Amino acid sequence: MKTLLFLFLTLSIAYAQTKTPVYRFTSADNRFLDSLEYDTFRYFWETANPANGLIPDRAPTPSFSSIAAVGFGLTSYLVGVERGYITRTQAADRTLKTLRFFANAPQSEKATGVSGYKGFFYHFLDMKTGERFKQVELSTIDTALLLGGILSAQTYFNKNTPVEAEIRQLADQIYGRVDWTWFQHHKPFVSMGWHPEKGFISADWKGYNEGMLLYILALGSPTHAVGPDTWAAWTKSYEWAAPNWATFQSQAHVNFDPLFGHQYSHVWVDFRGIQDSYMKSKGIDYTENSRRATYANRAYCLSNPAKWQDYGPTIWGLTACDGPKDTTVANRHFFSYRARGAASQQVIDDGTIAPTAAGGSLAFAPEICLPALKTMKASYGGKPYGKYGFRDAFNPTYRYPSAFANGSTKNGWFDIDYLGIDQGPILLMAENARTNFVWNLMKRNPHIRRGLQRAGFTGGWLK
């Protein structure tokens, strides 16, 4: 009994000591973030199709719509209202058009002429028609990210007006239609996707990653909830799937190599001070876990074992992003779009830095993320930053003839595109870092609270 009490007290003390430190933003910090948030917001507001609310996966390169980018965009509109970029009426009108599209978009098992099936939506949709793009998968995680934005709108637009009442009604309709149990091909786990041509993708959501929000929404569903055993099975898979608890770059945490896996779910859910059984056993919460992952990512870049150009205290950040090209030059291997990252299990690093790696972690570790963003904006003749904030990525090492990759220069390769799934975490986590706005908003959403409680989270704001 004394041993158990000692263990409990030890973990409690450790948890109390590892809460995210409070960072005081300076006037210069706020000026920088004011500009960054406004520029990044404009990506969603100006590139969306105003007729159906669909947001492109990338710009300025012509692109299909990413449903995850739509989810980030819907929450970005709310920040736009709070920051005075747009009016509440403008945001409500755009949001209503978006939700009407998703509520009425055709759903069936057919391979063409539809937008989704069983309440889920295809990963990419045609920007104009809203129908499935080529043969992409019916995506569980991208539907979850879309729902994060939809539920934020449901909570925010709480006035007794016809427009805001319809937003709330459509949000419930879209969320309630999602049949999470149908996607449990290998129960209790949820499959990553489905194709009408060949059925379920063999891979399931197992091991720590960005799937945390997906399982919270699946558990919180008022109509098609997965069983209460699902979360325990998922956290158990941390120990036998590829990502697991380990010490990497002196940081003990649940490892996952690209930083986006430590960021996406945190955009909408404030994990500070709440714990499931797994994190209770480790004496921290998931926010602290993401803070440690951010520090480990930076520390790996500082060590720079492959000697990539310019890596340092304020030039760092590995996550999923574009790259120069899939090629080998001068015995160096480079990639195009790929999930780059560094963790105990693997390192994928070709010298490509993604500003969203630091930007998406602003709410975890502003003391290291802000200096990085400031330096990246000011460096390289301004190439990493443009009218919509940070472009997706750059690679200072890739100094080869332009024939190898669009964007190559004598100073390296610089992406020309902005990506919606990068811009969202930068804007929304900057706002969470400054005001807790999205986090506090989602604490009021009954579906999020229900999902967390069914997952076994306790403490903090859930009391």
UniProtKB/TrEMBL annotation:
Signal peptide: 1-16
Gene3D superfamilies the record matches: 1.50.10.140
Origin: domain of life: Bacteria
Pfam families, A to Z: Glycoamylase
InterPro entries assigned to the protein according to its UniProt record, in alphabetical order: Glycoamylase-like_cons_dom (IPR019282), UCP028431 (IPR016883)
Record keywords, A-Z: Signal
Sequence ranges assigned to domain Glycoamylase-like in this UniProt record: 204-446
Name of the protein: Tat pathway signal protein
Organism: Spirosoma endbachense
